[in-house]
Design goal:
Helix content is about 20%, strand content about 45%. It has about 675 residues and is of the alpha+beta class. The strands form 2 sheets. It has a 25-stranded mixed beta sheet that branches. Strands 26-27-30-28-29 form a 5-stranded mixed beta sheet, with helices on one face. Helix 1 packs antiparallel against helix 2 and helix 1 crosses helix 3.
Length: about 675
């Protein structure tokens, strides 16, 4: 900031020196001589070739009139800047009191063409010229015992134009109808400053700015407004980090700032910003983000004090599409520019050393004071598309609505979110809790209703090789935190989950008895109810909510997989969770109860071809020859009965000999596994 002020002062001093020189030359030799002098010695004055059409001077009134001035580029051929007319009225008698007063400074038709080439700009040599002059002046001792004051009044820039070309980005922009009005500006004195600026952008939109500074107290009051700014003008700069194929929309902004020049970190800001009909497209012109309206109304913002008082944030018509591709990329990775292999990252340009920001350090230590009077999201949709699966997957969450009022970092808060899922499903989230001390009190309720399982079939095909052909999924979750203790009550409710035929063209990633598990989990009404309770202390460094959920759910699935008939009162289990069918060593056939148990086990193999049944007889070692004969006969009956039930030979294993381990009772242990 100090460097910019210093450069401004240097350029202003050069302009005033030029005016005084013109007055002196004009008084002694006349306007033609002054014009001739400028045309011949402009390079000595500003470091560039200068031409002028006409100069009018009046020493007694302190007036200078200049027409058709042009400052050229370093090559002395191309035009860098110029104006149609310049009028300056100076009170030279004030210089006796070490004060320069410009009563009027008016420039009409100013045109400046700024170009960035490499690390520098096409005006760099002019700044260096004045810096050299300033350095030479610094070597001289000031023995006059006082400072100079420069007072400018009625400064006007009328109908100017500023063009900007960035060769690195390949961008070109400009500001037309540039108008500046500064009623009063004092440098080096105690008087105040008042300034205003208006300009029009080439691509559309207008900027208006004003500022006033009290020279005695150093208090300032500034305002800026932008109307109808076309976001397309920002695309060359966004393209540095993202591969953007298109950017459109309009920006409107109004901002006010009040504070002290010597304490900018405590500046008090008031801001309103709005973006309408915005859209960002990728290089293939596919839409990535679309936005109907975004509005932000900031009542008061004091970064130095960590205070953010926001009246409202409003988002409407936001549409986001996120895609996963087979080559491992996604929408975000394709949008962001990747560093070419073997190419080092560009080093940042050296910056001027900054003074320690003690105020910022203090602000970081202050507690955050945040208030949002109203937060509203309407007509928001998010679409996930996955092209990595055997079947295309697209899942659209539409009509997302979020509403919250008086959100604050202190006190209780609440928010409500609702959304529409594919096929008529609904999702809802209710939140109540603290923000600053979030461990003290939180209550989060999530509800998903009527999610059709067929919408998730592409993932079932990819992981298990078979789709869902029917079924509706619902999920409710109530989680509370009280003084760091978490208690979660999650319930999974699935009605009539049905799997289609196994796909021969897909190699599944997982081999689990999904059909068998669903068969066991479904009750007589074809419903699956799974409770998933979660609890823990959030202060524990190893606390991870999702790990707790998956651990609980995983344990339940493992239990179902290892003992799939455990929910039936008619089937017994041994200590290892396997099915236990007790028999009498003296009997060579099965009873009706034993046949019932065998039939229930056989049903698992019939509904799921990935299930295998391993029948192994555990018997007392002293059973004798009769027991062995009875066992052999029972095995023949068992094999024949299972074949009649439709159990494939490849799904069946019946041991001919006794198992090595022994049970206290006689009976078959049936291990149900997956192949």
């Amino acid at each position: 900031m100090k460097k910019l002020v210093r450069v401004f002062v240097l350029v202003l001093a050069g302009v005033l020196a030029l005016v005084v020189l013109l007055l002196a030359c004009g008084s002694l030799f006349g306007g033609r001589v002054a014009s001739s002098y400028l045309n011949g010695h402009g390079e000595e004055l500003v470091g560039r070739r200068v031409t002028v059409e006409r100069v009018g001077l009046n020493l007694f009134t302190g007036s200078v009139r200049v027409n058709g001035l042009t400052v050229y580029e370093d090559d002395g051929k191309e035009r860098f800047a110029g104006f149609d007319r310049l009028r300056v009225d100076v009170s030279l008698l004030r210089a006796v009191g070490r004060r320069v007063q410009v009563r009027r400074l008016q420039v009409e038709g100013l045109q400046v063409e700024v170009r960035r080439e490499g690390k520098g700009f096409n005006f760099t040599s002019i700044i260096e010229h004045f810096q050299q002059a300033d350095t030479a002046a610094d070597t001289e001792q000031d023995t006059t015992g006082g400072g100079w004051a420069v007072s400018l009044h009625n400064v006007e820039l009328v109908g100017g134009r500023l063009g900007y070309t960035d060769a690195q980005r390949g961008s070109r922009t400009g500001m037309n109808d540039l108008n500046l009005k500064v009623p009063d500006l004092t440098i080096g004195g105690s008087e105040g400053t008042d300034a205003g600026l208006t300009l029009a952008f080439d691509g559309g939109g207008r900027l208006t700015a004003s500022a006033a500074v009290d020279g005695t107290t150093n208090r300032f009051d500034a305002a800026v407004a932008i109307e109808g700014f076309a976001l397309e003008q920002l695309r060359p700069y966004v393209a540095e980090a993202a591969q953007v194929g298109g950017l459109k929309g309009r920006l409107a902004l109004r901002a006010e700032a009040r504070g002290q020049l010597d304490s900018l970190s405590d500046v008090d800001l008031r801001l309103w910003a709005g973006v309408d009909d915005a859209e960002m497209r990728d290089l293939s012109q596919g839409p990535v983000v679309q936005l109907g309206h975004l509005g932000v109304d900031v009542e008061r913002m004091v970064p130095g004090k960590n205070v953010y008082d926001i009246n409202g944030v409003e988002v409407e018509g936001l549409k986001v599409r996120y895609e996963l591709f087979a080559d491992g990329t996604n929408t975000l990775s394709r949008l962001l520019r990747q560093q070419p292999a073997g190419q080092e990252a560009a080093q940042p340009e050296p910056q001027e050393a900054e003074e320690p920001e003690t105020d910022s350090a203090k602000a970081a230590q202050r507690p955050l004071h945040l208030r949002v009077g109203k937060l509203s999201l309407r007509d928001v949709s998010v679409t996930l598309a996955d092209h990595t699966l055997p079947d295309e997957f697209e899942f659209a969450v539409k009509d997302v609505r979020l509403s919250a009022e008086n959100l604050s970092t202190s006190g209780a808060n609440n928010a409500r979110l609702m959304a529409t899922l594919p096929s008529g499903g609904k999702a809802m989230v209710n939140w109540e809790g603290n923000i600053s001390d979030w461990k003290l009190n939180q209550r989060l309720m999530l509800s998903v209703k009527n999610l059709h399982l067929t919408d998730l079939s592409p993932y079932m095909v990819a992981y298990f090789g078979m789709p869902f052909s029917d079924g509706v999924f619902s999920f409710t979750s109530l989680n509370t935190i009280r003084n760091s203790e978490l208690k979660g009550d999650n319930k999974i409710d699935i009605f009539k989950p049905t799997l289609g035929e196994k796909r021969a063209d897909v190699k599944p990633q997982l081999h689990l008895p999904v059909r068998a598990a669903l068969y066991v989990l479904k009750d007589k009404d074809e419903k699956v109810l799974l409770p998933v309770p979660v609890s823990g202390n959030v202060d524990n460094p190893k606390f991870n909510y999702m790990k707790l959920v998956w651990k609980t759910l995983g344990n339940l699935i493992v239990k179902v997989a290892t003992s799939p008939l455990g929910t039936s009162d008619s089937v017994a289990l041994d200590a290892d969770g396997n099915v236990w069918i007790a028999v009498d060593a003296d009997e060579h056939d099965f009873t009706s109860e034993q046949f019932y148990q065998i039939d229930r086990v056989a049903e698992l193999a019939k509904v799921d071809e990935s299930v295998t049944l391993d029948f192994c007889l555990y018997s007392r070692p002293d059973g004798g020859q009769r027991a062995a004969e009875n066992h052999e006969r029972r095995n023949r009956i068992l094999r024949h009965h299972l074949a009649e039930l439709g159990v494939a030979e490849g799904q069946l294993s019946i041991s001919e000999a006794l198992c090595d381990d022994t049970h206290s009772d006689e009976g078959y242990v049936v291990k149900i596994e997956t192949r």
